[in-house]
Amino acid sequence: MTKEDCFYLGKIVKKYSFKGELLAKLDTDQPDIYENLDAIFIEVNGTLIPFFIEKSQLHKSDLLRLKFDDVTNEADADALMKCDLYLPLDLLPKLDGTKFYFHEIIGYQLNDESFGPVGTVKGVNDSTSQALFEVDREGIEILIPMNDDFIKNLDREAKTITVNTPPGLIELYLE
After folding, report:
1. Domain segments of the chain: what residues?
2. Distance, CA of 3 to CA of 58 (rounded, Å)
3. Which of 55, 103, 127, 159 has minimal CB crowding within 10 Å?
4. What is the pTM (predicted TM-score) of this model?
5. CATH class of 3-90
6. Using CA of residue 102, residue 103, residue 104, residue 106, what is the dihedral sign?
7. What is the CATH topology of the domain spanning 102-174?
């Protein structure tokens, strides 16, 4: 299994007991749907390694308490501290309407209701307070805010996103 076949679920943040239990901070709005997993991939030294879960439960609402089959003491748990957790993409809950996962829209065509075809979504910049579509228009990068009010339609079959941006926003990049 490679990272490209998986999605980032969270990170192991601390030990819970001397018996090898760990707490993971999940990167999700719905941590409860990941409470009863059988296995998970942990990135150790750049490689995804499957770990089987003996038991898991939510801890203080946003942390997942994990007990792995082969992690039985503090030394084993120490080796996994700060490691990232991954799950296969097919375990992501399906989204509908204009909701989407960032990795899902790469390669989609972005159209503006007023401007027309803008370009191809090549990425998402979520390092700012407002996530941005990174759109390639014949070598020119155009950044468009991922504002719910701007996103009018998402067609998964046609791989298109229709937005309605403020007048002049796209033209700023083309001058």
Report:
1. 3-90, 102-174
2. 25
3. 127
4. 0.70
5. mainly beta
6. positive
7. SH3 type barrels. (2.30.30)
- The residue behind tokens 């990167």 is 27
Distance in angstroms (rounded) separating the CA atoms of residues 13 and 99? 29
Where does residue 139 fall: left (phi above 0), alpha (psi -120 to 50 degrees), or beta otherwise? left
b/e burial code for range 145-157 (CB count within 10 A of at least 16 → b): bbeeebbeebeee
H-assigned helices in 14-68 = none
Domain 3-90 and domain 102-174, same fold? Reply is: no
